[in-house]
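Notes from hallway chat w/ T.B., transcribed later so I don't forget. T.B. wanted the structure written out for a chain they're using in a teaching module, and asked if we could keep both sequence and structure tokens in one place. Agreed to drop them here.
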Amino acid sequence: MILDDKVIMSLPPPPPYLPNPGMQPGSPTLPNPPPPFYESQQSSNQLQRPLKLSAFPSHILLQIVYNAFPTHPSLDTGLVERQRKILLWLAKSLRLVNKAFYIACMHVLRSTYLPAYTSMLRPYYSSDPFPSSPVPRSHSSSLNTVQRETPVLDLFIALKVREDVFVDDSELHLEREDMFKDIFDHAQPKARLEDLVRIYGLREGLITLSPPGVVTYTSAAPSSQSSNSNTVVPSNTRLPLPIPSPSPSPASTIRSSTSRFFSSFRRAGKTPSPPSTICPGSSQRQQQPAPRKHTKRIRPLPFSTLSISFSTRKVGLQLMSADTGAKRTIVEVQRMSRDEHLEATASSIIAELRVLLVG
């Protein structure tokens, strides 16, 4: 027989057995017996659900996970080695229990191995697995975000925590030098570039976070006008307007050349006057129509269907078909060198994508 203290404490007390004031003491039966205990128990179960460990708040679960780490070494194992085994247990066992434990365990694992992850980055690549601004959740799962670099960090953690325990258990275990080469040479810059393309594309209105089935439209100006859209002119600034000059007639060509020769002597002693301008408030203001800004209605691409093909010489933006799942390259740019920053490459991809969608 197994008794659970939590279940016993959650049950309500039994109803009281009150004696009937009209009965004499020593009578064998009561005329009005109390209701049976199982009815009150059944009604209380309908109001209160049994408590579970996963039903605790997130900060309490996080404190429980932190208390699982040892605070002193054992007789044959050091403190660091014991803590690394707990990290391996979190990665392989505890985080797979349910969603609440997954969030608590990944918080501990990511915060623990983030310094080791950033120390192994290439010097000309940037990283942001935990953005400061809130990132929307993915439509496929509530645990995943649209941040593509976060799964790369999780892969690094799964590999690093296992290798650390193997090194602690045996001195004969040797780490391979190229163990993390594929992660930091290809997977990390590829995922980081996809995040930069998402950030720049959302800002330009070329990429949307909506699912592939949702149709959305945005308005964008052509590339020739967008280059001058950042120039702001105050409304009270008086700009000189050009005065159209009439075309000279053939008969006045000779006279104009002669008068220009003699007028040069008359203007020699005079100071040159500034060019005449037409003020906006004068009566001679010419009503010129304002240039009409041509905006084009475009359909942004869903970010869930976009991916990056990354290499040392060129980078391509691939679009996945929602029907067949096949990928095709829609934008391809050349990298200037291996040391080119990912921000510059992302800007080039967005510029080519704007030309493709807007024209």
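Follow-up for T.B.: Strands lie at 207-208, 218-220, 296-298, 301-302, 306-310, 314-320, 327-334. Might be a good example for the class.
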